[in-house]
Amino acid sequence: MGKPTGFLEYTREVPKDDAPLSRILHYNEFHEELPVEKLQVQGARCMDCGVPFCHSGKLISGMASGCPVNNLIPEWNDLVYRNRWEEALERLHKTNNFPEFTGRVCPAPCEGSCTVGLHGDPVTIKSIERAIVDRGFEEGWIRPEPPKARTGKKVAVIGSGPSGLAAAAQLNKAGHSVTVYERADRAGGLLMYGIPNMKLEKTVVQRRVDLLAEEGVRFITGTEIGKDIPADQLKAEYDAVVLCGGATQGRDLKIEGRELSGIHLAMEFLSKNTQSLLDSNLEDDAYLSAEGKDVVVIGGGDTGTDCVATSLRHGCRSVIQLEINPMPPLSRASNNPWPEWPKVYKMDYGQEEAAAQYGADPRRYLVSSKKFIADENGQVSGVLTVQVEWKKDENGRIIPVEVPGSEKVLPAQLVLLAMGFTGPENPVLDQLGVERDERTNAKAEYGKFATNVPGVFAAGDMRRGQSLVVWAINEGRAAAREVDRFLMGGTNLP
Q: How far is Cα 37 from Cα 14, in angstroms, rounded to an integer?
């Protein structure tokens, strides 16, 4: 650590964002960049804290605390402070294959467990991470590095999201011949079609896919294993198979009126928008438009936020986001101590944009949806809602209880269901005979990643359920290590 008193001398500074009312006019990323001198100052705020919780990567109270890929954060912060950027990039790539993704879309649990943040503002870790890798591409420090020799082993990776790409990158590095199968028309999975362009521009994703291809990874898109190619055929042709298909089955809301037109799962809305944007800049009309409509988004989280932001860019008439949980506190509650992830109220980019457009946070808390209301054409026209309170039932469980007389109808010509995901939908699990856990995910022990089928491994959301991009990278890397061990009897992969 080059500046022992940096956290005392300097205050936290993050890059500014474009103004909300200007950025909703386009789909480009809207974060500005701090100049190099300011990034060095921010790196100097990283202290020699003895036990750096920022890269611990533990689950505490069900939430990530610290970096799940165990980024060497104090090391590359110090290198940035010393203006040794290429060395900082080397440290960053030791643990993270794709810092250009996590530096953009990760919620930064590292910052939530930063020691400086215990009694002040945490170090600007996420912004520094992104700056390091972006500079690496700009300076040409990141180049294709194909393996010097091949092992003769063939591995199939099913799914090209963050876990699949991480597994492919590591297995290719070990010298295996890797083929990645993706059912969509472009590689990237969640990164390509699940995250809107304004959070992660698709040129950033394609740049990394192209780099992996130059290193020897083979990508086959538009091909669904279990449908276009039988899963047992794939298993017969490869020495190992890694299942990284994600948890893509959206949670539905089976209430009266669900059959009405105008009600969609969030991912259908988001993925069609991104595909149309990439194919034709939205000129083909092959997407679900919110233009001129009252939009109701049911569910919070990142997906709900993305639906709000996308609806605003379409030119919706209004947008409301419903959450059944209470509004989080403004500061850490007593049962949410550091270094846990701080469960506090904040406005993400979509809520900021809606507030700028309509004058208030679009979220409505402690609201349950009871019924979808139809117009004369079988189109949704409104949502009947009711306020709830969380109370204990006779068994001591906390459940939502309706507040009498609080029913209200919200106008809606477009309803988006953003209530999370229930598990994998890919038929490949059934065809291969892979056992599932109680949540319907592929059953494979964390750390080993082997399923009950010899030679078949599982990683990412398909194994652990809906989670963060950074956890998917963690699992893809770790699964690759176990596949390499299975194929070669030992491994040198980290």
A: 13
